[in-house]
């Protein structure tokens, strides 16, 4: 046993531990065959760590193992040292007189301890290129986890409003805008609550909502709007009703158009739900495109405490 | 750079590349999952998942899961997990299922990589991963096939651990037996066909004992090996079995006999006896010719995979013949033999038994991952073999295979999100399979078809688009087609627009009416939309007169609001 470098010695130590494990895990094998592999593994590890040219004698090895060997706790070092001492003593006995000194269960645990110590020393002993590879592996795993995490966050953020939407929503606990409203910022007015409540403080039936936002246009536009709701709803643009579905009953759809000059325009949606299925959705075509939700880039939040008389007063063009 | 670090870099290169591919694949799953249409099977599995959760939450009081269609005979691993995910998801229910399916498909990709790496080293892992990522039929099904997609992922992990156990015998660690149990559970919890993996495990144990007896010449030794490996394998099967039962209410009531009853029922499956095109002629589900599966796999997998698989098969047969004479060599090849078994046994069984076959290779999708692993291992072997002869040869090989993989990426980009409909050049190309094979059997083109119809109508009649209710009819389950409708579309049996996919030649119906839009891939139509309306049939909505708002200011506007 005369390895050239600490790196080679630690690799060989790992091979010895693997050989011992493969014998110990084989129910048909005699576990004593694993003992020489374990003794060699510790000698090689010690040689690699100390950088010695030759293997240490038994006493030095045991002393190092019991006091210095890193990667193992104090009690584990003592346990490992005791078992190794028994193994070394057993190995010195002529094979004809040898009896099993350590149970196979203890040997298996000893081999796992050796593996643990190797896990600690191997990266530093194998040299910078091995360290680089190990770090590369860690970075790669971290990158996969990071992509997964970012994917989840982006997916959830993209589909749930976290209070940054441009629509100021006032959710009332009655169907006629009475009582104390709960305020919420919504990114879009496109809800299909079915028979569920829109908010934990609001019941599934007999509630109403008013949304307000400010639409900023750079150029004149003939805007088309479509509202769909169950029960009643209406859309007001700058105070003028453009779509009126102010009626209880089944799901209805209505549309309307209005010429809008460049500048800021106030959009307001009133909605109420009596009972049964609850939904409300707005689509618009502002620049000749297929009707869809109004893009965020064209909307501005009117503020938490906007003035109903001048709702977009705080919004700059 | 020293020779050692250069060697280290070369051996790490395929691993680094594999991890990069996995990262890109993960990113693609997150950015594209909502592009995919809803397949015919998904609404049923969505309901089954809800019934499973109801069964678990009411501790068996709500027993609708026990007699839900024929699905009660299926393990509900994916469906139950999907129902659980939907409960907490902010996404639409089907988008949630698509994302979950995509993520489980990714786990399948990792399984292929691990298997290829285990049997073929880092390069084997890389090629296996590159091949499966470039297999459109696997990638497409990952998102919208709630049964065959997750089963394919479970099957590859089950097979991987069986192979690892077989290679490690007799020194199999406790951790590996437990992982094997989890792998078996992943396969069994979706389809009872996961019992195939249990059979491979049994075979591995029997074969290991036989090798032991053969090598030592002592058959007592063999029986000891059978016993010592057998009871450990049985514990793994019990772990997998327990995992299978978690989301399978019907089997929870008969944990032993139930799954076998289900297996027998599935092998006599007779729900879909219908006709479909195969090679230009129309055949029935029960009359599928013997070459149905081989031919479709040869046409649906990337060409490079088919070629590598054939080369690997020939090479494997030659090596098996050579090594069979030497028991120790034979044992070494056993892991590869198990992979071959995992690929060959299911189709051979189906051919011999005359099992009903339809919908392309979807029911045998679980063969795509091990096939890609086998192809990847073969290319890695060829790379090493050629490197011993000429230094430039492996470079040429790597270059050619990389170009072919790149072409697959381009194909998949073009086919997206209907990747699964792709046929390779061995079939003569997409234009040759039109009307000769079932292409878009899952209705993957309907989402895009409705978008195209909406776009067409908006462009053609923008002034009356919003005030008109357009009636549309389709070919296939209306419930799914309706889900893509904008508010001004209605489904009607006598709808004035028709959208038809290629299944049962639906796209050729109403041929005398003008085609207004089509969904096309690689030059062939996957869905054709026709305008069936005479002018007077357009039903305008009642015009809405602007009304004076009753009270634009809410009564309680001045009251102090709750903070959200």
List keywords for this structure.
heterodimer, A: 317 residues, alpha+beta, seven-stranded antiparallel β-sheet, four-stranded antiparallel β-sheet, 11 strands, rod-shaped, B: 564 residues, alpha/beta, six-stranded mixed β-sheet, two-stranded antiparallel sheet
Structure description:
The complex is a heterodimer of chains A (317) and B (564). Chain A contains six helices and eleven strands. Chain A is of the alpha+beta class and 317 residues long. In chain A, helix 1 runs antiparallel to helix 2, helix 2 packs across helix 4 and helix 3 runs antiparallel to helix 4. Chain A starts with 5 loop residues before the first helix and ends in a 17-residue tail after the last strand. The mean pLDDT of chain A is 87. With 564 residues, chain B is an alpha/beta fold. Chain B is built from 20 helices and eight strands. Chain B is 60% helix and 7% strand. In chain B, a hairpin with a 2-residue loop joins strand 1 and strand 2. Chains A and B meet through helix 1, helix 6, strand 2, strand 5 and strand 7 of A and helix 1, helix 9 and helix 18 of B.
């Amino acid at each position: 046993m005369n390895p050239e470098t600490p790196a080679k010695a630690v690799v060989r130590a790992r091979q010895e531990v693997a050989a011992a494990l493969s014998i110990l895990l084989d129910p048909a094998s005699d576990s004593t065959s694993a003992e020489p592999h374990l003794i060699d593994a510790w000698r090689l590890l010690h040689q690699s760590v100390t950088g010695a040219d030759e293997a240490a004698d038994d006493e030095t090895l045991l002393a190092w193992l019991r006091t210095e060997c890193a990667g193992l706790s104090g009690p584990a070092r003592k346990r490992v040292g005791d078992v190794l001492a028994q193994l070394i003593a057993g190995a010195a006995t002529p094979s004809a007189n040898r009896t099993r000194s350590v149970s196979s269960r203890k040997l298996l645990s000893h081999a796992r301890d050796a593996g643990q110590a190797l896990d600690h020393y191997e990266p530093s002993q194998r040299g910078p290129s091995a360290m680089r590879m190990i770090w590369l592996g860690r970075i790669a795993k971290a990158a996969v986890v990071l992509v997964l995490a970012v994917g989840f966050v982006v997916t959830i953020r993209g589909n749930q409003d976290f209070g940054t939407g441009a629509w100021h929503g006032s959710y009332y606990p009655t169907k006629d805008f009475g009582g104390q409203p709960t305020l919420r910022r919504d990114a879009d007015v496109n809800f299909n609550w079915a028979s569920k409540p829109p908010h934990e403080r609001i019941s599934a039936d007999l509630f109403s909502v008013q949304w307000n936002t400010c639409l900023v246009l750079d150029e004149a536009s003939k805007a088309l709007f479509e509202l769909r709701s169950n029960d009643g709803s209406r859309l007001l643009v700058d105070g003028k009703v453009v779509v009126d579905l102010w009626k209880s009953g089944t799901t209805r759809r209505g549309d309307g158009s209005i010429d809008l000059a460049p500048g800021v325009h106030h959009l307001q949606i009133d909605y109420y739900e009596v009972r049964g299925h609850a939904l409300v959705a707005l689509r618009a075509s502002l620049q000749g495109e297929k009707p869809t939700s109004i893009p965020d880039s064209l909307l501005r939040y009117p503020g938490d405490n906007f003035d109903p008389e001048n709702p977009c007063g705080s919004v700059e063009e | 750079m020293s020779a050692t670090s250069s060697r280290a870099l070369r051996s790490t290169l395929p691993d680094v590349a594999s991890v990069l591919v996995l990262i890109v694949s993960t990113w693609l799953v997150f950015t594209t999952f909502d592009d995919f249409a809803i397949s015919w099977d998904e609404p049923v599995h969505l309901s089954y998942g809800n019934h499973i959760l109801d069964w678990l939450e009411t501790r068996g009081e709500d027993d609708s899961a026990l007699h839900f269609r024929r699905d009660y005979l299926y393990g509900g691993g994916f469906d139950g997990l999907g129902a659980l995910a939907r409960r907490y998801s902010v996404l639409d229910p089907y988008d949630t299922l698509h994302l979950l399916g995509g993520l489980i498909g990714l786990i399948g990709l990792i399984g292929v990589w691990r298997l290829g790496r285990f049997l073929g080293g880092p390069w084997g892992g890389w090629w296996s991963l590159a091949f499966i990522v470039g297999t459109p039929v696997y990638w497409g099904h990952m998102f919208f096939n709630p049964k065959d997609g997750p089963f394919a992922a479970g099957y590859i992990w089950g097979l991987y651990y069986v192979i690892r156990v077989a290679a490690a015998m007799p020194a199999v660690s406790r951790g590996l037996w437990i992982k094997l149990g989890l792998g078996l559970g992943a396969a069994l919890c979706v389809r009872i066909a996961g019992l195939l993996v249990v059979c491979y495990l049994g075979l591995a144990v029997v074969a290991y004992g036989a090798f032991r007896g053969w090598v030592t010449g002592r058959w007592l030794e063999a029986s000891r090996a059978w016993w010592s490996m057998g009871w450990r394998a049985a514990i793994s099967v019990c772990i997998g079995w327990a995992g299978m039962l978690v989301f399978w209410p019907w089997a929870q009531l008969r944990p032993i006999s139930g799954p076998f009853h289900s297996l027998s029922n599935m092998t006599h499956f007779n729900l879909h006896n219908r006709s479909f095109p195969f090679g230009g002629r129309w055949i029935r589900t029960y009359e599928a010719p013997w070459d149905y599966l081989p031919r479709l796999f040869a046409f649906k997998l990337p060409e490079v995979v088919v070629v590598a698989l054939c080369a690997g098969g020939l090479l494997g047969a030659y090596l098996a013949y050579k090594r069979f004479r030497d028991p120790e060599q034979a044992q070494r090849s056993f892991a590869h033999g198990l992979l071959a078994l995992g690929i060959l046994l299911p189709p051979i069984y189906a051919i011999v038994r005359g099992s009903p076959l339809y919908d392309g290779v979807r029911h045998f999708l679980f063969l795509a991952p091990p096939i890609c692993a086998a192809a990847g291992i073969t290319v890695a072997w060829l790379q090493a073999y050629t490197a011993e002869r000429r230094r430039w040869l492996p470079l040429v090989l790597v270059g050619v295979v990389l170009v072919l993989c790149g072409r697959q990426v381009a194909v998949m980009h073009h086919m997206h999100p209907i990747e699964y409909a792709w046929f390779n050049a061995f079939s003569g190309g997409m234009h040759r399979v039109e009307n000769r094979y079932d292409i878009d059997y899952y209705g993957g083109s309907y989402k895009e078809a409705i978008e195209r119809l909406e776009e067409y109508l908006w462009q053609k009649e923008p002034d009356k688009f919003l005030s008109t209710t357009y009636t549309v009819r389709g070919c296939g389950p209306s419930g799914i087609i309706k889900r893509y409708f904008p508010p001004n579309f209605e489904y009607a049996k006598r709808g004035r627009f028709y959208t038809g996919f290629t299944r049962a030649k639906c796209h050729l119906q109403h041929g005398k009416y003008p085609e207004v839009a089509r969904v096309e891939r690689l030059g062939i139509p996957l869905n054709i939309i026709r305008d069936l309306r005479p002018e007077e049939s357009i039903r305008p909505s009642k015009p809405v007169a602007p009304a004076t708002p009753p009270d634009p200011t809410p009564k309680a506007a001045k009251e102090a609001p709750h903070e959200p």
